[in-house]
Amino acid sequence: MKIIGITMWQLDLPLKKPYWLSGGRLKFEKLDSTFVRVDTDANVAGWGEGCPWGSTYLPAHGPGIRAGIATLAPSLLGQDPRSLEAINRTMDMALPDHLYVKSAIDMACWDILGKVTGMPLWRLLGGTNADLVAVNSSISTGTSDEMISLIRDAYSEGYRTHSAKIGGSDPTADIARIQAIEAALKPDEKVTYDVNRAWSPAVALQVLNNVSPRGWIEQPCETLQQCAQVARRVKQPIMLDECLHTFGDHLQAWRLDACEGVKVKPNRVGGLTKARQVRDFGVSVGWQMHIEDVGGSALADTAAVHLASSTPVANRLACWLCHHHLAADPVPGQGARNVNGFAAPPTAPGLGVEPDVAALGAPVSVFE
Ligand code: MG
Asked: So which residues are the catalytic ones?
Protein backbone atom coordinates (compact mmCIF):
# COMPACT_ATOMS: atom_id res chain seq x y z
CA MET A 1 0.00 0.00 0.00
CA LYS A 2 1.31 3.45 -0.91
CA ILE A 3 0.40 7.03 -0.16
CA ILE A 4 -0.66 8.64 -3.45
CA GLY A 5 -2.05 11.96 -2.25
CA ILE A 6 -2.22 14.37 0.68
CA THR A 7 -4.98 17.00 0.72
CA MET A 8 -5.05 19.84 3.21
CA TRP A 9 -7.84 22.16 4.38
CA GLN A 10 -7.61 25.21 6.66
CA LEU A 11 -10.48 25.89 9.05
CA ASP A 12 -10.97 28.79 11.44
CA LEU A 13 -12.58 27.44 14.61
CA PRO A 14 -14.04 30.33 16.65
CA LEU A 15 -14.40 29.87 20.41
CA LYS A 16 -17.89 30.32 21.89
CA LYS A 17 -16.42 32.96 24.18
CA PRO A 18 -12.95 34.43 24.77
CA TYR A 19 -10.63 32.33 26.94
CA TRP A 20 -7.75 33.54 29.12
CA LEU A 21 -4.94 31.59 30.74
CA SER A 22 -1.46 31.96 32.25
CA GLY A 23 -2.55 34.57 34.75
CA GLY A 24 -4.54 36.44 32.10
CA ARG A 25 -1.43 37.01 29.96
CA LEU A 26 -2.82 35.01 27.04
CA LYS A 27 -6.22 35.48 25.39
CA PHE A 28 -7.76 33.22 22.76
CA GLU A 29 -10.76 33.83 20.48
CA LYS A 30 -10.30 31.41 17.57
CA LEU A 31 -8.15 28.45 16.59
CA ASP A 32 -6.47 27.83 13.22
CA SER A 33 -6.97 24.16 12.36
CA THR A 34 -5.55 22.07 9.52
CA PHE A 35 -7.45 19.01 8.32
CA VAL A 36 -5.51 16.46 6.32
CA ARG A 37 -6.65 13.53 4.19
CA VAL A 38 -4.07 10.94 3.20
CA ASP A 39 -5.10 8.91 0.12
CA THR A 40 -3.69 5.52 -0.83
CA ASP A 41 -3.52 3.32 -3.91
CA ALA A 42 -5.79 0.84 -2.05
CA ASN A 43 -8.69 3.31 -2.17
CA VAL A 44 -8.53 3.76 1.60
CA ALA A 45 -8.13 7.27 3.00
CA GLY A 46 -7.23 8.45 6.49
CA TRP A 47 -8.01 11.72 8.28
CA GLY A 48 -5.99 13.82 10.65
CA GLU A 49 -6.20 17.24 12.28
CA GLY A 50 -3.50 19.54 13.60
CA CYS A 51 -4.71 22.46 15.68
CA PRO A 52 -2.48 24.44 18.05
CA TRP A 53 -4.20 26.36 20.85
CA GLY A 54 -3.56 29.68 19.13
CA SER A 55 0.00 30.81 18.41
CA THR A 56 1.02 31.94 21.92
CA TYR A 57 0.38 28.84 24.04
CA LEU A 58 3.18 26.66 22.63
CA PRO A 59 5.88 27.12 19.98
CA ALA A 60 3.36 26.04 17.34
CA HIS A 61 1.01 27.82 14.94
CA GLY A 62 -1.48 26.92 12.23
CA PRO A 63 0.43 28.30 9.22
CA GLY A 64 3.49 26.41 10.46
CA ILE A 65 1.63 23.12 10.18
CA ARG A 66 0.68 23.79 6.59
CA ALA A 67 4.17 24.97 5.63
CA GLY A 68 5.65 21.93 7.34
CA ILE A 69 3.34 19.47 5.63
CA ALA A 70 4.22 21.04 2.26
CA THR A 71 7.86 20.32 3.11
CA LEU A 72 7.12 16.74 4.23
CA ALA A 73 4.73 15.71 1.45
CA PRO A 74 7.32 14.76 -1.24
CA SER A 75 8.99 12.37 1.22
CA LEU A 76 5.69 10.78 2.23
CA LEU A 77 4.30 10.10 -1.24
CA GLY A 78 5.00 6.46 -2.10
CA GLN A 79 5.48 5.39 1.55
CA ASP A 80 3.35 2.69 3.21
CA PRO A 81 1.07 4.51 5.70
CA ARG A 82 0.57 1.35 7.77
CA SER A 83 4.24 1.40 8.86
CA LEU A 84 3.86 4.06 11.52
CA GLU A 85 7.40 3.93 12.89
CA ALA A 86 8.84 4.19 9.36
CA ILE A 87 6.46 7.06 8.53
CA ASN A 88 7.67 8.90 11.63
CA ARG A 89 11.33 8.26 10.80
CA THR A 90 10.70 9.59 7.29
CA MET A 91 9.14 12.75 8.71
CA ASP A 92 11.94 13.21 11.25
CA MET A 93 14.56 12.88 8.50
CA ALA A 94 12.75 15.27 6.16
CA LEU A 95 12.07 17.87 8.86
CA PRO A 96 13.88 17.43 12.20
CA ASP A 97 11.98 18.62 15.30
CA HIS A 98 8.84 20.67 14.35
CA LEU A 99 6.91 17.97 16.21
CA TYR A 100 3.52 19.67 16.02
CA VAL A 101 3.66 19.70 12.22
CA LYS A 102 3.64 15.91 12.07
CA SER A 103 0.67 15.03 14.24
CA ALA A 104 -2.06 15.30 11.58
CA ILE A 105 -0.14 13.08 9.13
CA ASP A 106 0.59 10.49 11.83
CA MET A 107 -3.09 10.53 12.89
CA ALA A 108 -4.27 9.97 9.29
CA CYS A 109 -1.88 7.01 8.92
CA TRP A 110 -3.27 5.45 12.14
CA ASP A 111 -6.76 5.94 10.69
CA ILE A 112 -5.69 4.03 7.56
CA LEU A 113 -4.09 1.23 9.62
CA GLY A 114 -7.34 0.88 11.57
CA LYS A 115 -9.48 0.81 8.45
CA VAL A 116 -7.38 -1.83 6.66
CA THR A 117 -7.16 -4.06 9.76
CA GLY A 118 -10.83 -3.55 10.70
CA MET A 119 -9.89 -2.32 14.18
CA PRO A 120 -10.68 0.90 16.04
CA LEU A 121 -7.67 2.88 17.24
CA TRP A 122 -8.29 2.10 20.92
CA ARG A 123 -7.63 -1.56 20.12
CA LEU A 124 -4.55 -0.87 17.98
CA LEU A 125 -3.23 1.29 20.84
CA GLY A 126 -3.58 -1.55 23.34
CA GLY A 127 -7.12 -1.44 24.72
CA THR A 128 -9.45 -4.40 25.13
CA ASN A 129 -12.75 -2.49 25.26
CA ALA A 130 -14.10 0.89 24.16
CA ASP A 131 -13.71 2.12 27.75
CA LEU A 132 -15.50 5.33 28.59
CA VAL A 133 -13.14 8.08 29.69
CA ALA A 134 -14.08 10.77 32.19
CA VAL A 135 -13.95 14.26 30.72
CA ASN A 136 -12.86 17.39 32.54
CA SER A 137 -13.90 20.98 32.07
CA SER A 138 -11.47 23.83 31.40
CA ILE A 139 -12.12 26.96 33.42
CA SER A 140 -10.81 30.27 32.01
CA THR A 141 -8.85 32.58 34.33
CA GLY A 142 -11.02 35.15 36.12
CA THR A 143 -12.04 36.34 39.55
CA SER A 144 -12.93 33.70 42.14
CA ASP A 145 -16.64 34.38 41.60
CA GLU A 146 -16.34 34.14 37.81
CA MET A 147 -14.41 30.88 38.03
CA ILE A 148 -16.78 29.34 40.58
CA SER A 149 -19.72 30.25 38.33
CA LEU A 150 -18.05 28.46 35.39
CA ILE A 151 -17.33 25.44 37.62
CA ARG A 152 -20.98 25.25 38.71
CA ASP A 153 -22.08 25.40 35.02
CA ALA A 154 -19.64 22.60 34.17
CA TYR A 155 -20.90 20.50 37.10
CA SER A 156 -24.44 20.73 35.70
CA GLU A 157 -23.11 19.30 32.40
CA GLY A 158 -21.68 16.26 34.19
CA TYR A 159 -18.10 17.39 34.74
CA ARG A 160 -16.63 16.32 38.09
CA THR A 161 -13.02 17.26 37.35
CA HIS A 162 -12.09 20.78 36.38
CA SER A 163 -8.89 22.34 35.07
CA ALA A 164 -8.91 25.83 36.55
CA LYS A 165 -6.50 28.33 35.02
CA ILE A 166 -4.75 30.45 37.65
CA GLY A 167 -1.35 32.11 38.09
CA GLY A 168 0.17 35.56 38.23
CA SER A 169 2.75 37.50 40.19
CA ASP A 170 0.67 38.16 43.35
CA PRO A 171 0.77 35.14 45.70
CA THR A 172 -2.01 36.58 47.88
CA ALA A 173 -4.44 36.69 44.96
CA ASP A 174 -3.83 33.06 44.01
CA ILE A 175 -4.01 31.87 47.63
CA ALA A 176 -7.41 33.58 47.95
CA ARG A 177 -8.61 32.21 44.62
CA ILE A 178 -7.62 28.61 45.42
CA GLN A 179 -9.21 28.82 48.88
CA ALA A 180 -12.46 30.25 47.48
CA ILE A 181 -12.71 27.61 44.77
CA GLU A 182 -11.93 24.74 47.19
CA ALA A 183 -14.63 25.99 49.58
CA ALA A 184 -17.19 25.99 46.75
CA LEU A 185 -16.49 22.43 45.54
CA LYS A 186 -18.92 19.59 46.15
CA PRO A 187 -17.57 16.37 47.74
CA ASP A 188 -17.44 14.56 44.39
CA GLU A 189 -15.56 17.34 42.60
CA LYS A 190 -11.87 18.10 42.21
CA VAL A 191 -9.80 20.74 40.51
CA THR A 192 -6.42 20.70 38.87
CA TYR A 193 -4.98 24.19 39.18
CA ASP A 194 -3.23 24.87 35.89
CA VAL A 195 -0.76 27.74 36.22
CA ASN A 196 0.38 27.59 32.58
CA ARG A 197 3.93 28.70 33.53
CA ALA A 198 2.79 31.95 35.14
CA TRP A 199 4.56 31.60 38.51
CA SER A 200 8.19 32.24 39.32
CA PRO A 201 9.56 29.50 41.61
CA ALA A 202 9.34 31.89 44.56
CA VAL A 203 5.67 32.70 43.96
CA ALA A 204 4.92 29.00 43.46
CA LEU A 205 6.41 28.19 46.88
CA GLN A 206 4.63 31.09 48.55
CA VAL A 207 1.26 29.99 47.17
CA LEU A 208 1.53 26.23 47.44
CA ASN A 209 2.91 26.19 50.98
CA ASN A 210 -0.11 28.22 52.13
CA VAL A 211 -2.99 26.26 50.59
CA SER A 212 -4.37 22.73 50.84
CA PRO A 213 -6.12 21.90 47.57
CA ARG A 214 -7.34 18.32 47.15
CA GLY A 215 -6.18 18.10 43.50
CA TRP A 216 -3.10 18.62 41.36
CA ILE A 217 -0.95 21.62 40.47
CA GLU A 218 -0.05 21.84 36.79
CA GLN A 219 2.92 23.46 35.05
CA PRO A 220 3.65 25.97 37.83
CA CYS A 221 6.67 27.60 36.13
CA GLU A 222 8.18 28.12 32.70
CA THR A 223 10.90 25.48 32.57
CA LEU A 224 11.27 21.87 33.62
CA GLN A 225 14.15 22.83 35.92
CA GLN A 226 12.03 25.47 37.69
CA CYS A 227 9.10 23.06 38.03
CA ALA A 228 11.40 20.40 39.50
CA GLN A 229 12.73 22.94 42.01
CA VAL A 230 9.14 23.62 43.11
CA ALA A 231 8.08 19.97 43.12
CA ARG A 232 10.79 19.12 45.66
CA ARG A 233 9.47 21.70 48.14
CA VAL A 234 5.67 21.32 48.08
CA LYS A 235 3.26 18.61 49.17
CA GLN A 236 0.88 18.72 46.20
CA PRO A 237 1.28 16.32 43.24
CA ILE A 238 2.68 18.14 40.20
CA MET A 239 1.47 17.65 36.62
CA LEU A 240 3.66 18.85 33.75
CA ASP A 241 2.47 19.98 30.33
CA GLU A 242 4.00 22.74 28.20
CA CYS A 243 7.66 22.09 29.13
CA LEU A 244 7.58 18.52 27.75
CA HIS A 245 7.93 17.92 24.01
CA THR A 246 10.37 15.12 23.15
CA PHE A 247 10.61 11.68 24.72
CA GLY A 248 13.89 12.88 26.22
CA ASP A 249 12.05 15.73 27.99
CA HIS A 250 9.79 13.17 29.67
CA LEU A 251 12.76 11.03 30.64
CA GLN A 252 14.46 14.09 32.13
CA ALA A 253 11.29 14.98 34.09
CA TRP A 254 11.34 11.50 35.61
CA ARG A 255 15.07 11.71 36.39
CA LEU A 256 14.54 15.06 38.12
CA ASP A 257 11.58 13.67 40.11
CA ALA A 258 9.73 16.73 38.79
CA CYS A 259 6.18 15.37 38.58
CA GLU A 260 3.71 12.65 39.49
CA GLY A 261 1.86 12.97 36.18
CA VAL A 262 1.87 14.56 32.74
CA LYS A 263 -0.47 15.82 30.07
CA VAL A 264 -0.06 13.65 26.96
CA LYS A 265 -1.06 15.73 23.94
CA PRO A 266 -0.47 14.23 20.49
CA ASN A 267 -0.02 17.56 18.73
CA ARG A 268 2.56 18.75 21.27
CA VAL A 269 4.68 15.58 21.16
CA GLY A 270 4.41 14.91 17.41
CA GLY A 271 1.45 12.56 16.94
CA LEU A 272 -0.22 9.44 18.28
CA THR A 273 2.87 7.29 17.66
CA LYS A 274 5.07 9.45 19.90
CA ALA A 275 2.23 10.05 22.36
CA ARG A 276 1.87 6.30 22.74
CA GLN A 277 5.59 6.03 23.55
CA VAL A 278 5.16 8.67 26.26
CA ARG A 279 1.98 7.00 27.54
CA ASP A 280 3.74 3.63 27.79
CA PHE A 281 6.70 5.21 29.61
CA GLY A 282 4.27 6.95 31.95
CA VAL A 283 2.59 3.63 32.75
CA SER A 284 6.01 2.09 33.41
CA VAL A 285 7.02 4.74 35.94
CA GLY A 286 3.61 5.07 37.60
CA TRP A 287 2.55 8.47 36.32
CA GLN A 288 -1.08 9.50 36.09
CA MET A 289 -1.92 11.14 32.79
CA HIS A 290 -4.44 13.43 31.23
CA ILE A 291 -4.54 12.36 27.57
CA GLU A 292 -6.11 14.96 25.27
CA ASP A 293 -5.05 17.13 22.35
CA VAL A 294 -3.76 20.69 22.37
CA GLY A 295 -6.81 21.90 20.47
CA GLY A 296 -9.09 21.17 17.57
CA SER A 297 -12.47 19.84 16.57
CA ALA A 298 -14.04 16.56 17.64
CA LEU A 299 -11.72 14.86 15.13
CA ALA A 300 -8.54 15.67 17.07
CA ASP A 301 -10.35 15.14 20.37
CA THR A 302 -11.42 11.67 19.28
CA ALA A 303 -7.90 10.57 18.37
CA ALA A 304 -6.76 11.47 21.88
CA VAL A 305 -9.77 9.75 23.46
CA HIS A 306 -8.78 6.53 21.65
CA LEU A 307 -5.34 6.72 23.32
CA ALA A 308 -6.86 7.60 26.69
CA SER A 309 -9.39 4.78 26.50
CA SER A 310 -6.62 2.26 25.82
CA THR A 311 -4.61 3.42 28.86
CA PRO A 312 -4.84 1.49 32.18
CA VAL A 313 -7.44 3.05 34.49
CA ALA A 314 -4.86 3.51 37.26
CA ASN A 315 -2.75 5.71 35.00
CA ARG A 316 -5.57 7.64 33.36
CA LEU A 317 -7.10 10.86 34.58
CA ALA A 318 -9.89 12.77 32.87
CA CYS A 319 -9.66 14.10 29.28
CA TRP A 320 -10.51 17.58 28.08
CA LEU A 321 -12.56 17.94 24.88
CA CYS A 322 -11.58 21.10 23.01
CA HIS A 323 -14.59 20.95 20.68
CA HIS A 324 -16.83 21.80 23.64
CA HIS A 325 -15.39 25.35 23.52
CA LEU A 326 -15.95 25.86 19.78
CA ALA A 327 -18.75 27.69 17.99
CA ALA A 328 -18.10 25.54 14.87
CA ASP A 329 -18.44 21.77 14.43
CA PRO A 330 -16.84 20.60 11.17
CA VAL A 331 -17.66 16.93 11.96
CA PRO A 332 -21.23 17.37 13.23
CA GLY A 333 -22.21 14.89 15.91
CA GLN A 334 -19.30 12.55 15.16
CA GLY A 335 -16.61 11.17 17.45
CA ALA A 336 -16.12 11.26 21.20
CA ARG A 337 -18.55 13.67 22.89
CA ASN A 338 -19.37 14.49 26.48
CA VAL A 339 -22.34 12.48 27.75
CA ASN A 340 -22.88 13.21 31.44
CA GLY A 341 -19.18 13.59 32.13
CA PHE A 342 -17.90 10.70 30.01
CA ALA A 343 -16.82 10.22 26.40
CA ALA A 344 -16.71 6.96 24.42
CA PRO A 345 -14.25 6.28 21.60
CA PRO A 346 -15.94 5.13 18.36
CA THR A 347 -16.02 1.40 17.65
CA ALA A 348 -15.79 1.74 13.85
CA PRO A 349 -12.44 0.78 12.29
CA GLY A 350 -9.80 3.50 12.45
CA LEU A 351 -10.43 6.89 13.98
CA GLY A 352 -14.19 6.63 13.48
CA VAL A 353 -14.60 10.23 12.29
CA GLU A 354 -15.21 10.87 8.59
CA PRO A 355 -15.46 14.55 7.61
CA ASP A 356 -17.84 15.55 4.83
CA VAL A 357 -15.47 16.88 2.15
CA ALA A 358 -18.16 19.12 0.67
CA ALA A 359 -18.63 20.82 4.05
CA LEU A 360 -14.90 21.56 4.42
CA GLY A 361 -14.81 23.85 1.36
CA ALA A 362 -11.94 24.08 -1.07
CA PRO A 363 -8.62 22.52 0.01
CA VAL A 364 -5.65 24.87 0.40
CA SER A 365 -3.17 22.35 -1.02
CA VAL A 366 -3.13 19.00 -2.80
CA PHE A 367 0.10 17.00 -3.03
CA GLU A 368 0.20 14.01 -5.39
MG1 MG B 1 -2.06 22.57 30.93
From this structure: 165, 265
CATH match for 123-343 among 3.20.20.120, 1.10.10.200, 3.90.580.10, 3.40.50.80 = 3.20.20.120
CA of 230 to the centre of ligand 1 (A): 17
CB burial string 98-127: b at 16+ within 10 A, e below: bbbbbbbbbbbbbbbbbbbeebbbbbbbeb
> What is the distance in A from the centroid of ligand 1 to the CA of 318?
13
Q: How much is the mean pLDDT over the chain? A: 96
Question: What ranges do the domains of the chain cover?
Answer: 3-117+359-367, 123-343
Q: How confident is the model at residue 39 (pLDDT cuts 50, 70, 90)?
A: very high
The reply to whether 123-343 shares the fold of 3-117+359-367 is no
198 CA from centroid of ligand 1 (Å):
11
Residues ≥6 apart with Cβ < 8 Å to 289: 261, 262, 263, 264, 279, 282, 311, 315, 316, 317
Rounded to the nearest whole angstrom, what is the distance from the C-alpha of residue 269 to the centroid of ligand 1?
Answer: 14
Q: Is the pTM of this model over 0.85?
A: yes
Region 80-95 average pLDDT: 98
Write out the residues surrounding ion ligand 1, Cβ under 5 A: 194, 241
Domain covering 3-117+359-367 assigned CATH 3.30.390.10 in the classification: yes
For residue 335, pLDDT over 90 is answered with yes
